[in-house]
Write a structure and sequence with these properties.
Elements lengths: L7 H23 L5 H24 L1 H8 L3 H19 L9 H11 L2 H7 L4 H10 L11 H4 L4 H14 L6
Helix pairs in contact: 1-2, 6-7
Length: about 170
């Protein structure tokens, strides 16, 4: 059976381009300077990197075999990477309980506006204005951030950040 040959002339540049995009969006995500679209691109581009890497290896298979022949450090590194991937895939959290910060954010996000505003030292009207400026329209005083943001975590985070920025310290 003859397999079609893969052109190294485009397989290698394809892999480099996919890697450059993955690296760029990964760094932006690490620094929390990414857009939701960049996060989505990063997630889906992982498949592009995988496909490009397979094509790259297929197009350079003879060179790969020659490169790894008798090179124990390279083989050991690849073996370690594979073992790390398999090992971390088998690990599961000890409990399915969310973290304390996640619970706090969930609680704030689900609280009605009339309950949430005083947490930040704001009146309901002030909190409504702050959230409106942040792009979250609150239908009434019983609406929660979660409902106004329709469950979008990034919008909930933006609303909480806006409230925190407008917060007045409570008198001691």
């Amino acid at each position: 059976m003859n397999f079609p040959t893969v052109s190294r002339a485009w397989a290698t540049p394809l892999l480099l381009a996919c890697f450059a995009l993955m690296a760029g969006t990964g760094v932006l995500m690490f620094l929390h300077r990414h857009s939701p679209l960049q996060e989505e691109i990063h997630a889906w581009l992982g498949w592009g990197v995988l496909a490009a890497a397979v094509l790259h290896v297929a197009g350079n298979f003879t060179l790969f075999k020659r490169h790894f022949a008798g090179r124990r450090p390279a083989v050991a590194l690849l073996t370690f990477a594979l073992a790390l991937l398999v090992g971390t895939s088998l690990l599961r959290p000890v409990s399915g309980e969310p973290s304390v910060p996640a619970l706090a954010v969930q609680t704030l996000a689900r609280a009605p506006l009339r309950t949430l505003a005083p947490v930040f030292g704001l009146s309901v009207a002030e909190a409504r204005q702050v959230l409106d400026n942040a792009g979250l329209a609150m239908a009434d005083d019983d609406t929660s951030l979660d409902a106004a943001a329709q469950g979008r975590r990034d919008q909930i985070g933006n609303g909480l950040k806006a409230l925190a920025a407008a917060a007045r310290p409570s008198p001691r």
